[in-house]
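User: New here, any thoughts?
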Amino acid sequence: MDREDIIRVLQNREMTQDQIADEIIGKYTTDDRSRKGYLKIGAQILVENELEFLLNEMVESHILGMKRINNGLLEKIYYHII
């Protein structure tokens, strides 16, 4: 995962960090209690950690914009600055 992946996922949309992570590795589930579901949870955690670092770096470099919304939870929304 790198900057190009994030820009490709965002395109002309606004997304939260969780939405970006879901687009990159897919949604995970443990409904079937399979090993695959639990491995995806571990991958999700690793992707989210790396993603947070990359998003902050890209906002500081003015590649991405960020705004905060309060819809019960304070969330950061990211968008690509064209």
About this structure: The two ends are 21 Å apart (CA to CA). The chain has a mean pLDDT of 85. Helices lie at 3-10, 17-25, 35-60.
